[in-house]
Amino acid sequence: YNLWRFFMNKLLTAKELSEKLNLSISKLAIDRMKDRGIPFVKFQAQGQRGAVRYPMSEVQAFMENNMKAKA
User: Fold this and answer.
1) Distant-in-sequence, close-in-space partners of 51: CB < 8 Å, separation ≥ 6
2) How far apart are CA 58 and CA 21, in angstroms?
3) Does this model's pTM top 0.90?
């Protein structure tokens, strides 16, 4: 993953992404636990839960690569 591209991205929270895609936050969490779905990054200090963020470019790429029918 290109680090420069990461820093140039808008990072979405799970709440923001769930609202944009009309998915539940729980569905996003389950996909993360099962290592599937939209790529994410997790910022975590030792001993803390951490903050999950979704880079917008990864969201767009995931949607393009997983589209079943083209509009």
Assistant:
1) 13, 42, 43, 44
2) 14
3) no
- Residues making up the chain, counted from first to last: 71
Of 63, 64, 37, 65, the closest CA to residue 52 belongs to 37
Answer for the pair 56, 11: CB distance below 8 angstroms, yes or no: yes
- Alpha carbon of 4 to those of 1, 14, 23, 43: distances in Å? 9, 22, 29, 17
Residue with tokens 């990054």, as numbered in its chain: 41
Instruction: Give per-residue pLDDT as tens, 13-70.
Output: 999 999 999 999 999 999 999 999 999 999 887 777 889 999 998 999 999 999 887 6
> Which pair of tokens denotes residue 5?
């591209």
Q: Name which of 1, 4, 11 is nearest 55 in CA terms.
A: 11
Both structure tokens of 63: 């949607």
Q: Which residue has the tokens 């079943």?
A: 68
